[in-house]
Amino acid sequence: KVLVRDYVKEKIGSKYLKPVLQICNSFDEIDFYNLPNSFVIKCNHGCKWHYIIKNKIEFLNNKKIFDAVKQQMQGWIEQEYWCWNGFEMNYRGIEHKLLIEPLMRDYLNIPCNEIHVHCFSSNPEFLIFFDNIRNKKVFYDKELNIISDDELFTANIDNKILNQIFVLSLKLSRKLSENFSFVRVDWMFFGEKLYFEELTFTPHSGFCPLKKDIEIGKLLNIGNLK
Length: 226
Description:
By secondary structure, the protein is of the alpha+beta class.
């Protein structure tokens, strides 16, 4: 994820990157006293290896929780994710780091909404919008027509703003997916602003069923793969 940030800067600039407060080699290197009251500690070489600190003072004063988080984070940073959970080879060979980022959530402490743009041969073909407030998701094609949704979907966001975010995510994903046979470009938006999350090359190790699997599979051109 450290090297990916450099790639994103080169392609679309730093405007859409989330701030990184610290980059550390181990838990003991974290300078807690120069961090805000809330933040996220995450590993750069795996998926969902993170811990959320909502109140730094309470966290630092609770030795039991502090020691448990330290043990968990150190355990993660010493492991190889690519062969431990699924078989996502793109995580192999990454220099293990801990990234400290701001906690970006609304007043209800609900995770930000997300957009996953699926790109084939540098072309965004469809996206999935995750409304985390309502715990629903909806599939759109590249023309932003709804393909399928969870029941009757109504986003908890102004439609005009949502459409602008979708159009921007497709435009930026096209740039970030150049020269890749397939990549899923993941975004979040907070305060009506779009932020890059990551490039996902093997979602769920390829074992997550999606609606219209056959149609999606036909979008992948494997003729040039070696």
